[in-house]
Specification:
Layout (H helix, E strand, L loop, with lengths): L19 E2 L8 E9 L1 H11 L12 H6 L2 H5 L2 E2 L15 E4 L10 E5 L5 E6 L6 E2 L17 E5 L15 E6 L3 E4 L9 E3 L2 E2 L12 E7 L8 E9 L3 E11 L3 E11 L6 E8 L1 E3 L14 E2 L3 E5 L5 E5 L7 E8 L3 E5 L19 E7 L4 E8 L10 E7 L8 E11 L10 E9 L11 E9 L13 E6 L3 E9 L7 E9 L6 E9 L2 E2 L3 E6 L7
Length: 532
């Protein structure tokens, strides 16, 4: 995806045309609607009042035409950079817009503010002339003023000669329902975040997809690396108002202020949800399913508990939908990470080794609850099948209100790494010993740790593996240095013997005496034959 945002801000006021906003030097103005008062407090009040009324879905302009705008047809429609919002102003990051299509058919109303968020808003009106599109594109048959599907911030137009061209490179994008994503330090998109998740993997009800229906852009300050966007959220069971303060530095940081109002009961209310893809990795790969060694946007869930424990849970492509919960009270953070950064482990030109990690840092008191991990079976890389989110302990009931703040770190690793060794690989194989008959129902595990105090162990001192399993028994347990001459690279090896096909939960960490040397490895093992 490649489109951005643009708008001109003068030292104290906007230069407004009678029917549009015309940035100096721009080819043509963006058409704007009438002014209307705006403030974030007013947006919160609107969301609270909307929660008392029945949900009304935003109508699609013309579905028969939108249906013809498939992925390929929409890919041929490009927003013209000359029309970008803030293209010629003192702000660094222009804004461009996505066109509606089959997979993003619901219009999102876009507005530009004339102040810092407490002033007047004017709607940005759709015009076909904003887009380059083929002469035979079905989009020409859409009615006037249909609206936009989403938006993106382009890279800085003043970043210097070595930076990517802002016309072809973007760093954040909002598209479809409440999904949004950003690139990390390695200039690559990957996993996504969402405004909210409603009833994911709840057996007796369908998942809901609340959507950002209104977006408001704050004129950027000269030279600032931060942009601010407000958003209204609406869905069958929830309404909300969001403020996003997004900073483009080496990584991308987003400070989010969210006000949420339930118009119905929710079985699983997912706060700060993250959505990713995991197909296979070195943990487990069916024979010859694909030519690449690994395919995933993220390879594990990391958690930092209130008590200070660091936890690493490798992801699974399970035989059936699995939902796991990791209880805590006021967690310090959690995230879906891509720890494996070795190109040779993927061998793919789409560069999975560069996909960003995404860390959620709660700001303020989140209270008791649990990090929920939902893993869904997939047979291809085109499906996002992993969700991680915070679920409050209290039931989510009609009339409830939630006000919370958090920070998203789109980066190449967790922003607050543990002082202990990190888990860097999980490998499975047949249990037993070479040259001997391999016993049935026995699986061998090899878990690798790297760094931290492992690098400073005296010669001849080996760590001890501390193991636990929800069922089954361990054998052949030992820890050894990986023979690759990398200081602090150790692996724990053990066999697990288990009957039946129910999942097995496991824990492992390394210690020396009373000193904990590694983060805690958690794993959910699915014995063969445990499909749906």
């Amino acid at each position: 995806m490649t489109d951005r945002r643009t708008f001109l801000v003068t030292a104290g006021a906007l230069a407004m045309a009678a029917m549009g906003y015309a940035p100096a030097g721009a080819a043509a103005p963006l058409r704007l609607g009438a002014r209307a008062p705006f403030s974030f407090d007013h947006l919160v009040r609107q969301a609270r009042e909307a929660a008392t009324r029945p949900f009304q879905a935003t109508p699609m302009p013309n579905w028969p035409i939108l249906e013809r705008l498939d992925y390929a047809a929409v890919g041929e429609i490009r927003f013209k950079p000359d029309h970008a919002l803030f293209a010629d102003g003192p702000g660094r990051f222009p804004v461009t817009f996505f066109h509606l299509g089959r997979f993003s058919p619901t219009p999102v109303r876009m507005y530009v503010l004339d102040g810092d968020g407490a002033g007047q808003a004017r709607e940005i009106l759709y015009d076909e002339s904003y887009f380059d599109m083929p002469a035979d594109s079905p989009a020409h048959a859409l009615p006037p003023g249909i609206g936009f599907a989403g938006f993106r911030f382009q890279e800085s137009r003043v970043a210097g000669p070595a930076a990517p061209d802002w016309r072809t490179n973007d760093w954040v994008a909002f598209l479809s329902a409440s999904y949004f994503r950003a690139i990390g330090e390695l200039y690559q998109y990957g996993l996504s975040a969402r405004g909210i998740a409603i009833d994911i993997a709840v057996p007796d009800r369908a998942e809901e997809f609340p959507a950002f229906t209104h977006i408001y852009f704050v004129p950027p300050a000269a030279g600032s690396d931060t942009v601010t966007v407000y958003a209204r959220l609406d869905g069958p069971s929830i309404t909300g108002a969001f403020r996003f303060d997004m900073t483009r530095g080496k990584a991308v940081l987003m400070d989010i202020d969210a006000a949420l109002f339930l118009r119905g009961d929710v079985a699983r209310l997912g706060i700060a949800p993250l959505t990713s893809m995991y197909w296979f990795s070195e943990v487990s790969k069916p024979t010859a399913i694909d030519w690449r060694p690994e395919v995933h946007d993220s390879d594990g869930l990391a958690m930092w508990t209130r008590g200070g424990e660091y936890i690493w849970r490798p992801l699974n492509n399970p035989p059936r939908i699995m939902a796991s919960a990791f209880g805590d009270d006021n967690p310090r953070g959690f995230g879906l990470l891509q720890r494996d950064r070795n190109f040779d482990h993927y061998l793919d030109g789409v560069h999975y080794e560069r996909r960003p990690s995404l860390w959620v840092e709660p700001l303020g008191d989140w209270g008791p609850g649990a990090v929920h991990l939902v893993e869904i079976p997939t047979d291809d890389e085109i499906h996002d099948n992993i969700v991680a989110m915070w679920v409050p302990a209290s039931p989510a009931r009609k009339g409830d209100e939630h006000r919370l703040k958090y920070r998203l770190h789109w980066t190449d690793r967790e922003p607050y790494p543990p002082a202990t060794a990190r888990c860097v690989a999980t490998r499975l194989g047949n249990g037993g010993q070479p040259g001997q008959p391999r016993p049935q129902g026995v699986r061998k595990f090899m878990v690798e740790f790297l760094g931290g105090p492992l690098a400073g162990l005296p010669y001849g001192v080996a760590p001890e593996a501390v193991l636990w399993a929800s069922r089954g028994s361990f054998s052949y347990v030992y820890v050894e240095a990986v023979p690759d001459d990398i200081p602090g690279h150790w692996r724990a090896q053990f066999d697990l013997t288990v009957d039946g096909t129910d999942p097995v939960e496991m824990r492992l960490y390394l210690k020396s005496g009373e000193l904990t040397l590694s983060e805690t490895w958690l794993y959910q093992y699915h014995p063969p034959g445990g499909g749906a």
